[in-house]
Amino acid sequence: MILEACVLGVILLGFSGLVWQPSLLLKIIALDVMSTGVIGYFVLIAARTGVFTPILFPTQSVTYADPVPQAVILTAIVIGLSTQALMLVGAMKLSKNNPTLELDEIERNYLP
């Protein structure tokens, strides 16, 4: 129960940073914190005692964990990493033309 509250707190912390931070770089970091919290929540839900990793033991009769959620989480981690890299490249391109990464300043510079 305490772990679930901590993970949900991390998700809310990332979401609040995404909504309230004025800097683009801080918003990217907040999005990473939020996605880490979501992945942690799925890992916490999937963690069960009494099941084994899906490696075949022909001599033992044991209950195996379902490998599909693990594959989905690994895919989510890879997609999250690539999305973060793409957003950081976009922030680098914006920083060449703008002296700051504050979203209000950037929007003000691009208004006609």
Automatic annotation (TrEMBL):
Topology relative to the membrane: Multi-pass membrane protein
One Pfam entry name: Oxidored_q2
Cited Gene3D superfamilies: 1.10.287.3510
Cell compartments where the protein resides: Cell membrane
Gene Ontology CC annotation, any one: plasma membrane
Residue intervals passing through the bilayer: 6-26, 38-57, 69-89
Keywords per UniProt: Cell membrane, Membrane, Transmembrane, Transmembrane helix
Family that this chain belongs to: Belongs to the CPA3 antiporters (TC 2.A.63) subunit C family.
Protein name stated in the entry: Cation:proton antiporter subunit C
Species of provenance: Pseudocalidococcus azoricus BACA0444
